[in-house]
Amino acid sequence: MSYKAYVTPDYYLNRYEGDIIPEEELSKALKKASRHIDSLTYNRIVSQGFLNLTEYQQDIIKEVICQQADFEVENADEIHTILSSYSINGVSAQFGSSWNVFTDKGVAMKRDVYALLCQSGLCCRLAR
Fold first, then answer.
1. How confident is the prediction along the chain (128 residues), in pLDDT tens digits per residue?
2. Distance CA 126, CA 74 (A)
3. 27: Cβ–Cβ under 8 A, 6 or more apart, which residues?
4. CA-to-CA distance for 15 and 91, rounded, in angstroms?
5. What contacts 41, CB < 8 A, 6 or more positions away?
6. Strand, coil or helix: 94
7. CB 23 within 8 A of CB 9
8. Rounded to whole angstroms, how far apart are CA atoms 47 and 33?
């Protein structure tokens, strides 16, 4: 059985009303974001089954995946850089955890999106 994203392109385009990701890249971006959410939720969605989550949890997961896919497409160059920081002529840039970006398990996402994901109850580090 192949891995399927928790959000369909139809959901992204029509329910979330996303318009950042080109349609030809949409399936791949949603699948990648879904895998990143699995990492951040300790694969609890995989183990429980998406359809076995509450409707509230499913709604949160779908919203977070759409926002994460948008973030990853918009910031692909910065996310894929191997540099954590650099400075040229007094101008510096840094990538990693900061006031507005959260990074864990190699996944970068906006802190407010991670806070939303935490509302699902699936991000707790304690074993269940």
1. 689 999 999 999 999 999 999 999 999 999 999 999 999 999 999 999 999 999 999 999 999 999 999 999 999 887 777 555 556 777 766 655 556 888 888 899 999 999 999 999 999 887 55
2. 32
3. 5, 9
4. 41
5. 117, 120, 122, 123
6. strand
7. yes
8. 18
Task: Give the chain's length.
Answer: 128
The residue type found at 78 is: E
In the chain the first and final C-alpha atoms are separated, in Å, by 26
What's the rounded Cα separation, in Å, for the pair 4 and 17? 20
CA atoms within 13 A on the CB side of 124: 7
Please return the burial class of 7, using the count of CB atoms within 10 Å of its CB with bins 0-12, 13-18 and 19+: buried
Which residue has 């007094």 as its token pair? Answer: 90
pLDDT at position 93, please?
A: 62
Q: What is the pTM of this model?
A: 0.85
